Amino acid sequence: MKKITLRAGKERSLLKRHPWVFESSIARGGGDSGETVRVESADGAFLCWAAFSPQSQIRLRAWSFDEAERIDAAFFKRRIEQAVAMRMRLAIASDAWRLVHGEADGLPGLVVDRYGDTLVAQFGSSGAERWKGAIADALLTATGLTRLYERSDAQAREWEGLPAQTGWLRGEGETALTIREHDWRLTLDVAEGHKTGYYLDQRDSRRRFADAVRQYGIKSVLNCFSYTGGFSVAALAGGASEVVSVDSSGPALERAKAHVELNGFDASRHQAWDADVNATLRRCLQEGRRFDAIVLDPPKFAPTAAHAERAARAYKDINRLAFMLLNDGGLLYTFSCSGGISPDLFHKIVAGAGLDAGVDGYIVERLSAAADHPQTVCFPEGDYMKGLGLLKR
User: 381, 302 in Cβ contact below 8 A?
Assistant: First the structure.
């Protein structure tokens, strides 16, 4: 077993069970890509077993802090069984959910989503890649399923020095699927959709938005960065009479229109605008158009804290415009999925946007990822999704 020794004082994060060690913290030692290594403090004390990544700035990702634990196929079987058991305790109103959520489930770099009878996995770290076969076997054993599709095409693979890989790992068949979410049906393609096929982390927020539309008597809704129209379906389910989906992807908007009809809503209540969101917000403002509710669910503007300043300007601008486009008493559901933007900073950005727009808002909800995308007390970086529900004053 190869050994990594940390610089003096750099063991503190591991002692607090944070699973990452950066390159600058290592005094000596190394290993092959994804190899399990023993990590010790400068005085030789055991700290953890970790996967070594020779190219990533996150040089070590901890598998276990138990010196007696072996990192083998049985280890991954146990961890995956624990993750599945946790989801079985949740009241998930869907047949699609996050099955493994990386560091939160003690499996750094591994993301697995279930869509009905199909699993989709992303192996985003050298350690997860090295154990891919054992992980795949454990996933099918724990779930009783036979189909596992790989979507290892996220940017994290580049940082690890790993090539993108997609395709069936186990089983075969159609990649186009239909899932149930709350009382709705939604479609996706695990081979082509964003992330592993769909944004499961917003499931609870979509339900809460439908309830808010009903509660506040919302009639007109502008859904920005709509993708395939999850929030648009929610708005219609809540009783909105006019919903506009805005996205720069024509295929996504076609699927959004199909979702409206699939769920039995009158297609005349929904419009799909293939357009840039920022330009659309400005055009609506110039035309004097107003809405009772606006959803802002943009892509990741700040993947790390280093991008936070530039991202903050982008978030502030779209929120400022949204405030100005809302009718008095209107509802704004605004989100950031950027790990580099903390909840406190996002609150400040939205507050600044309101100030620039000359309006204030009541915070009626604080929103986060659904419970099957868990956060843990030892890994604050897992708190990536944050959102606010506001009523314009």
Answer: no
β-strands 361-368, 386-392: how paired?
antiparallel
E strand or H helix at 180:
strand 176-181
CA separation for the pair 288, 178 (Å, rounded): 39
Find, among 224, 241, 227, 221, the residue nearest to 198 by Cα: 227
DSSP states of 10-62 as a string?
Answer: TTHHHHTT--EEEGGGEEE---STT-EEEEE-TTS-EEEEEEE-SSSSEEEEE
Question: Would you tell me how many other CB atoms lie within 10 Å of the CB of residue 257?
Answer: 17
Catalytic residue among 48, 224, 284, 337: 337
Banded pLDDT at 173 (limits 50, 70, 90): very high
| 160, 77 contact by CB (below 8 A) | no
337 is annotated as an active-site residue: yes
- Give the C-alpha distances (Å, rounded to integers) separating 12 from 155, 245, 304, 377: 29, 47, 22, 15
Tell me the C-alpha distance between 274 and 311, whole Å.
Answer: 23
3-state secondary structure of 233: helix
For 304, residues 6+ apart whose C-beta sits below 8 A from its C-beta are: 339, 340
Angle value at C-alpha 57, between 51 and 59, nearest 5 degrees: 20
Chain-centre distance for alpha carbon 287: 34
Q: For residues 295, 348, 321 and 242, what is the CA-based torsion angle, rounded to 10 degrees? A: 20
Band the pLDDT of 309: cuts 50, 70, 90. confident
Tokens of 245: 């989906």
Q: How many CB atoms lie within 10 A of CB 134?
A: 16
CB-CB contact of 325 with 291 (8 Å)? yes
The pLDDT of residue 302 is above 70? no
**Rg of the chain (C-alpha set):** 22
Distance in angstroms (rounded) separating the CA atoms of residues 91 and 235: 22
- Location of structure tokens 């708005």: 235
Separation between Cα atoms, residue 162 and residue 270, nearest integer Å: 42
Contact 98, 201 (CB under 8 A): yes
What are the pLDDT digits (tens) for 64-110?
999 999 999 999 999 999 999 999 999 999 999 999 999 999 999 99
Is 305 a residue whose pLDDT tops 90? Answer: no
Distance CA 211, CA 217 (A): 10
Rounded Cα–Cα distance for residues 299 and 335 (Å) = 9
Distance from C-alpha of 55 to C-alpha of 36, rounded to nearest angstrom: 15
